[in-house]
Amino acid sequence: MKKFAAIILFLQSLLLLPGLTSANGTSYFEDSEFPTGHVLPLDDGIVSILREELFIDVKQDSSGFFNLENPTLRADIEVHYEMFNETDEDLTMPIAFPQPGQSDQWNITLDGKEVALTGTINIHQQELMGSDRHDDWIQPRTGETYPFEGFNVLECVKNFESKTFDVVLKAGKTHSLVVQYVASFGQDERASLHPVYRLDYLLHPASYWSDFNELTIQIDVPSRSSVHVNLLMEKEGSYTFKGNFDNLPEEDIVLFISPSSGLFIDLFNTRISPFLFLISLVVVFYIAMQRSVLQNKWFSICLLLVFSYAGYDILSHKILGYPFTAIQYFIFIGYILILLVISLIKMKRIDLKRGN
């Protein structure tokens, strides 16, 4: 029995060896994303924002069977503005909305009527972000702050593309402006086992209006996600964060999310830990199968299914970077074959005992 256990451990170690030795030489996806932001007046005018309600609904694309790519996150953003024309004249106000990154499904309405985009302009980064930039990234699972080592668009691009449109504001009237669109996240796979996603929403452009009053923010995230928001917000329920501000915050909104990777893989934070856990699973499975109390075939099959799922949950998550990611398929196949060999030997012994 001891010799057989040693053979099993040796085979499992051979399967895991490529993963343990090649992780440092692999490549992972690291890409920041342009910030999105607040409406910005392009002409001088006495127009104030009485109230803004910002809704950010984070969606996670579901992955298929044994998809080794990390999930894609997108933000369905909806912003409601109450705008007040303080003058005695009607104003045609050209407005820019910073959104140079990937976005689609634009919809703008003023008092319920659709407003068409008129084009794009480039606005200097400092005008949109001010002098207080949030360059560091944060791993929301641990709260650790770390420098981003991937491609940083803020270092390379100084002028941000902004969508433009015109609205007509009646004299002395309050109008309801609603902007809806979909924005993408920046992503960092290298920093830890679980990817970190980042979304920046600019608030600094709001300072260009004649006055800005109340701001309400609501952020909804996928279930079992780890979240960090730089602004002071309260958690309501399991997946909603809300914040109310009487004045414009000094910082822009920076949202970090690390979605759940799986039932078992979520237990680990380093890349080597899941592989070591797989070895321990094989040992535990072997010992459990040798117990004399397990004389029922159906119980043994159920045990096999549970341990197989644990291996799938771990190895279907992207642990190794390119070009070694595909090795995880072969490790999983080897892991399942080892479990099957142990199970078949156990069932054969059960049949022999029943025959006697």
Automatic annotation (TrEMBL):
The chain crosses the membrane at residues 272-289, 298-315, 327-345. Gene3D superfamilies: 2.60.40.3680. Residues 1-23 form the signal peptide. It comes from the Bacteria. Keywords: Membrane, Signal, Transmembrane, Transmembrane helix. This is Uncharacterized protein. It comes from Ornithinibacillus caprae.
